[in-house]
Request: fold
Amino acid sequence: MIARGPDQEDKVLTVLVIPAGSGEESRTFRFPYPRLRAWGWTAAAAISLTAVMFGSWWYFAARSLRVGRLESEVAQYRDDRARLTMLAAQLEELEARYGQIRGLFGTEEGDLPSSLWLPPAPGGSDASNREGDQARPSSWPLTERGFVTQGLLEGGQSHPGIDIAVAQDSYIRASGAGTVAEVGQDEVYGNYVVLEHGQGLRSLYGHAAMTLVALGQEVRRNEVIALSGSTGRSTAPHLHFEVTQDGEPQDPLEWVRQP
Reply:
């Protein structure tokens, strides 16, 4: 029921509430239109404000998550940069060591670094150093004892030599005087040197970090010809040493004696 006044602004919304049960009085509620309009605007403003606040909260929450991810990425980049800096320092140190080695062996362009000669390994036989026996590959091929990790396998086909575990960049030396018959790189042996000793005898030195001789070069017994490494098919620094007679693999431990 709506009661109207003389002016439209005097309109009143009347709500009559009649209880279903008997004995209870009915109630009448009157709401002036201006008040209803004010309440409507207030409700609309509250809803709008709530929507804006919710939207702002959602926006800032999303931004906060993105900032967190960006901070994690920045931290990761910093860690990567620190690792790269460390690797660069290690590379510079390795390059400096390499330069020292090159300087030690005289590896300037056009200069062969094979002039280093060392005495026989401790425990070597004096008879192996006689002048008439210099070419025989009977001297231990390292300046230190090392540790034999694998010997010649039966038949000598699958492993035609011995493996000697030794520290990286140890001196590898000629087991006997001879001529450099081969020097280069191989998928299996990595950096390697083959010496020709005459009378069908050859010796091979594989997995070197660096070779220090040239093809056709004459070398003396115990002359350093390479530095040990882990090139080719290898899992750790070691020397693969072979002795062959007319192309047939020989057991190196029958030719040389480990100090």
